[in-house]
Amino acid sequence: MDGVVAVAGALSDASRVRALAMLRAGELCVCQIIAVLGLAASTVSKHLLILKQAGLVESRREGRWMHYRLADKPSPTAADALAWLERSIRGDARIVADGKALKAITRMDPEELCCRLRCNDTSVCAPGASAGRTAGRAEGAARRRAARAKQMSA
User: Fold this and answer.
1) Radius of gyration over alpha carbons of the chain, in Å?
2) CATH number of the domain at 2-153, out of 3.20.20.330, 3.40.50.1820, 3.40.190.150, 1.10.10.10?
3) Quick check: helix, strand or coil at residue 59?
4) What does each of the 154 residues of the chain score in pLDDT, given as a tens digit?
5) What burial letters (b/e) apply to 65-96, b meaning 16+ CB within 10 Å?
């Protein structure tokens, strides 16, 4: 049952679903995923860790680069979830847009991409990624305020 809960939890976040959709194309450097999602590196790393703990993705280190891919031999639960996800997101506008952005980003030299991301050069990010980051921060702040208000009223 722990595997089911881990997989369900991993799929409960739109950014993790988007990352999984990107990985259908093959192995990616974490910088490439960061550029498409438009999130902070630490946030993307946490999302990828959750996907890895659920058995949905695998990683490998090559020097200072971290590469992620869909799990070669997922558990039956993870395999079923990936098949369901594939059917469910087919044709989704955001997934299609991410795919187009990923094509452009994968044409860039990964070392240059990572360097530009470290320098906060948002021109390498997918269109709208920085807006998504701002919206994500606003949503997170609103959730934190609501949680504090709930704690204070209890």
Assistant:
1) 16
2) 1.10.10.10
3) strand
4) 778 999 999 999 999 999 999 999 999 999 999 999 999 999 999 999 999 999 999 999 988 889 999 999 999 999 999 999 999 999 999 999 999 999 999 888 877 777 777 766 555 555 545 444 444 455 555 666 766 666 666 6
5) ebbbebbeebbebbbebbeebeeebeeeeebe
